[in-house]
Known about the structure:
The longest helix has 27 residues, at 335-361. The protein has helices spanning 38-48, 114-121, 137-151, 192-204, 232-241, 262-265, 335-361; strands at residues 5-6, 11-16, 22-28, 65-69, 71-73, 80-82, 87-92, 156-164, 167-168, 211-218, 246-251, 269-272, 275-278, 286-287, 290-291, 296-302, 312-315, 321-324. The strands form six sheets. A five-stranded antiparallel sheet has the order 1-2-3-7-4, covered by helices on one side. It has a five-stranded antiparallel sheet with strand order 9-8-10-16-11. Helix content is 24%, strand content 23%. By secondary structure, it is an alpha+beta fold. It starts with a strand and ends with a helix.
Amino acid sequence: xxxxxxxxxxxxxxxxxxxxxxxxxxxxxxxxxxxxxxxxIQIWLDQRRPGQGKFVTQxxxxxxxxILSGVFEDAxxxxxxxxxxxxxxxxxxxxxxxxxxxxxxxxxxxxHADYAYFAKYGVRDYRGGGRQSARETAARVAAGAVARKILxxxxxxxxxxxxxxxxxxxxxxxxxGQTSENPFWCPDAAMVPVWExxxxxxxxxxxxxxxxxxxxxxxxxxxxxxxIYGKLDAELASAxxxxxAAKGVEIGAGFAxxxxxxxxxxxxxxxxxDGPIFLSNQAGGVLGGISTGQSVVARVAVKPxxxxxxxxxxxxxxxxxIELRTKGRHDPCVGIRAVPVVEAMTACVLADAYLRHRGQVxxx
Length: 364
């Protein structure tokens, strides 16, 4: 199986399966001398961790990360810092219930990657989906913690859920502070009970629902990214589309730009003391593939979880037509735990862009 690595100067290779003994990643290209401990990574993994409420999978995993290489004690500060060598991160799997997947050992879940994997490789790990599983994203979040160290305190990456099922937040009530006050990363306090009622109905029915995640990176300076084949927005879209269950990505106004006039879409500028002041951000902080200095903004559409209790028509490996219902522990809305993953992938893309920019034009 190829293509388990992403990035250019900041490169991440993830490994492991949902029901294997462990999973993790190798982070290559991290500069030396950055403070990095397991605790620095754990705070982000704890945000993605399963089993933290009735509206996410009840699989109980501590997601405790171990740093196996790439750090050493700084003789001057006595603190642990990166050495510039590959950073190996490992997360044990402790709560697998492979028996839950016995019924799909030779059957393909509709809407899932089961069939596509089997068609390509002729073999698949049906236990939780193997590499298809959203469990793989724990390694991405760990890598994202390293990326945030490279970006430093000047760049802030934060995410929120803007839609669950048909219910969308009211942007007039948007408050980033609310995202840490509820289990849905919701910036609109009035929408929380609506989402709770919707998800309770979905959960009791054994069904699932989709969502939209929005991410914003504040403090990205002008100049990151490259025109033509190294566009920052193209690489961000690619990274976000690589997340399990992602089915659409838009930057800035995105598809809504198609309905705008040229006057509405143009992000007008005025002169400021520290560079231009933009009067809007329809471009999502990227023009011509290069960051403008505005906040980088993207949204990801996440499909409903394919593993549901409702019987669905499908086929098995023998080509027989069957009906299938999936047992086990699954997220009724995988978008909830996707927020830390979207943040992490954004941080990884930005860290890579920063290192490449520094390599081409210099700078700190």
